[in-house]
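Two proteins were folded this term; both appear here.
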Amino acid sequence: MILGIADHPSFKTQLNEFLTFASNLKVEVVELRLDRLELLLSLNATRQDKTRIVSVLKNHDFRWFVHAPSIGINLASLNPILRKASEEAVMKAVRFAAEICAELVVTHVGRLSRDYPQEYIEKSLENAIDSLKRINSFCKDLGVVFTIENDHKAKDHVLAGNAEQTKYLVEKIGCKLTFDVGHANTFGKPEEFAEQLREHILNIHLHDNDGFEDSHLPLGKGKINFHEVIKGLEATLTCH
């Protein structure tokens, strides 16, 4: 396994500061979260501004992964306008990933709002799959590996929460999985989740929680048995 570090919207640092922090940790992989405002705005920036961002990244010798925007994004939305905008945002993230020679893109599947009855889940799921298939095809065209990330429990209807849901989606889309251990822990034992999805896992997010809330705690500060999780993932390629 290769250790890396993933950016997160809660980090109160500038992009350069985060990258310097990653350099000091001597990690090989950095996953850029495009919810970071500086990167998010660059998706619609002028060529000059985008070149500046790319030059900042190229000053660092990392293998890059890209996490598409997820805040305000919902590929499973029943609203066709919002869904189209969400898909376009993820497509732009894929194009950005190709521009910086990133190896992998991560995206969330989306959810059905809790304000809708459960009878709408099937339609919401169809929407998500339709968009995710197009995004996966675009990734293949640009030579970037596409992964979806399993979700955590929420008040909304979650479409990629437990192992069965997630496996169905990965196989339906034909993509790989970014396995979020903390998210899986809100549905049950993450080691059991990993066992069912092991052949699809390419990237791993590690953080801890108490099993009830996706609190992104440091390892050892929650209740996840990481020894059992890691032991069951010896064949996985990348871990961060």
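Next, the second protein.
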Amino acid sequence: MSILKVARMGHPVLRARARSLERHEIQGDRIQGLVDDMIDTMREYQGVGLAAPQVHESVRLFVAGMDGDDDALPLVTLINPEIEPVGNRVTEDWEGCLSIPDLRGRVTRPHDIVVRALDRHGRDVEMQLSGYPARVVQHEADHLDGVLFLDRMDSFESLAFLEEFSRFWSERHVPEE
């Protein structure tokens, strides 16, 4: 297992649409190793999600997971995800990103979603998510389309460096996604 270098805002890989993976590619050593390394990298940097383009791999794959009572999202690997909002409810909340270190901003996203994807074994999965887990999955899926959380902000008035966010805005620490 390896800790991978995280691409930072400005690197072209973060702005490109990643290519879909074929089922036969998923079981190969390359993709399985990439998944393992991404999980290690996400944990090393205390993130709750990490998309393949963030580690310089332009494929439609991300890992995500966090522990907690109300906000729990088990560790998942989602490949070629498709997201569908459920209902019209949207919420605005803080987001951060390993590729945009030390910045936080408020982003409006659908509160409830269904995500359909392949898991790390190439099996079809479908998950219904709400609240923070839905936000994490949407944030990571955006990376697969070359979209950063800054692109989703309605206003830059909430944009803050982590130190100021922690001093003035944080009710709870917002992990980097």
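The longest helix spans residues 29-44. The mean pLDDT is 93. These notes refer to the second protein only.
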